[in-house]
């Protein structure tokens, strides 16, 4: 937060409801436009990783638009790896979009 304004956050959500996927969390990161490229996303995601480990999660996953180089670089620098691409995975502004799938194992 800066001056009472949230400038970045990272959150988790349930990956899948089946018991066999317990311990996996879906990750999202948001950084306010005027605070991007200033380290706020790194701070938020780094803390989320620490908290996820402490709560017993063993894997984090996410998806990123291929052209989002800043997010891809951030996630890679924090130990995530790209494992594939979902083609035409979702629509944004009426256009089908691919996403890059990323994961990070938290086990020692």
Give your account of this protein's structure.
The protein is an alpha+beta fold. Helix content is 22%, strand content 41%. It is built from two helices and five strands. A hairpin with a 2-residue loop joins strand 4 (81-92) and strand 5 (95-105). The chain starts with 7 loop residues before the first strand and ends with a strand. The mean pLDDT is 93.
Radius of gyration: 14 Å
CATH level-1 class: Alpha Beta
The CATH topology assignment is: Aminopeptidase
| Strand order of the biggest β-sheet | 1-2-3-5-4
Extract low-pLDDT stretches.
none
Report strand %. 35-45%
Number of strands: 5
Number of separate helices: 2
The number of domains is 1
Q: Whole-Å distance between the termini?
A: 31 Å
Helix content: 10-25%
Q: Given the C-alpha coordinates, what overall shape results?
A: globular
Structural class: alpha+beta
Q: Which features would summarize this protein structure in a list?
A:
alpha+beta; 2 helices; 41% strand; Aminopeptidase; 108 residues; 22% helix
Briefly characterize the structure:
The chain is α+β, with helices and mostly antiparallel strands and 108 residues long. Helix content is 22%, strand content 41%.
Helix-strand layout with pairing:
Blueprint (H helix, E strand, L loop, with lengths): L7 E7 L9 E8 L8 H15 L4 E6 L4 H9 L3 E12 L2 E11 L3
Parallel strand pairs: 2-3
Antiparallel strand pairs: 1-2, 3-5, 4-5
């Amino acid at each position: 937060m800066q001056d009472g304004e949230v400038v970045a956050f990272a959150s988790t959500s349930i990956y899948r409801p089946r018991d066999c996927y317990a311990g996996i969390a879906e990750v999202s990161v948001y950084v306010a436009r005027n605070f991007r490229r200033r380290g706020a996303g790194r701070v938020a995601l780094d803390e989320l990783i620490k908290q996820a480990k402490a709560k017993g999660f063993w894997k984090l996953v996410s998806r990123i638009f291929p052209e989002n180089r800043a997010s891809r670089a951030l996630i890679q620098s924090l130990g995530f790896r790209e494992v594939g691409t979902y083609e035409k995975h979702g629509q944004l502004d009426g256009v089908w979009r691919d996403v890059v799938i990323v994961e990070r194992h938290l086990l020692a």
